Amino acid sequence: MFFYLLLLISGLTIGSFLGMLTFRLPRRLPLSGRSSCDHCGKKILWHQNIPVVSFLALKGRCASCNRKISFRYPLIEGLTALFFLAAGYFWSTVGLDFPLIFLLLLGTLLLGLFITDIEFLILPDQILLPLAVLSILAL
Fold first, then answer.
1. Residue range 19-32: average pLDDT?
2. DSSP H or E segment with residue 2
3. Fewest beta carbons less than 10 Å away: which of 4, 57, 59, 104?
């Protein structure tokens, strides 16, 4: 049970990072720095940045300007967490020959490509190059 709880929390956290990455990369925004509201620009406090939980607690609205927060963020966080759980289950029951971290990293990179392709019709090199290296290492 602890294994799946760890996967869930890791998936939500990585999903939060992936949401930020797929928002900032296509817009050529800096990847460093704290998150801020897309509307008012106010920095998001740490307790307002807890994946999915904060979105629900804030009822999908910014704590500062009260405008709607895009549903893309909890959706990406939730999908990443579901992928982590499914990958962990598949890995533990089938017994694959490579480490779970490899499968999780591969899936996260592919999910990042999928999101940016759907939203912007681009495949960023910052995701493609690590994916290429990981794929070569898999051989």
1. 93
2. helix 2-27
3. 59
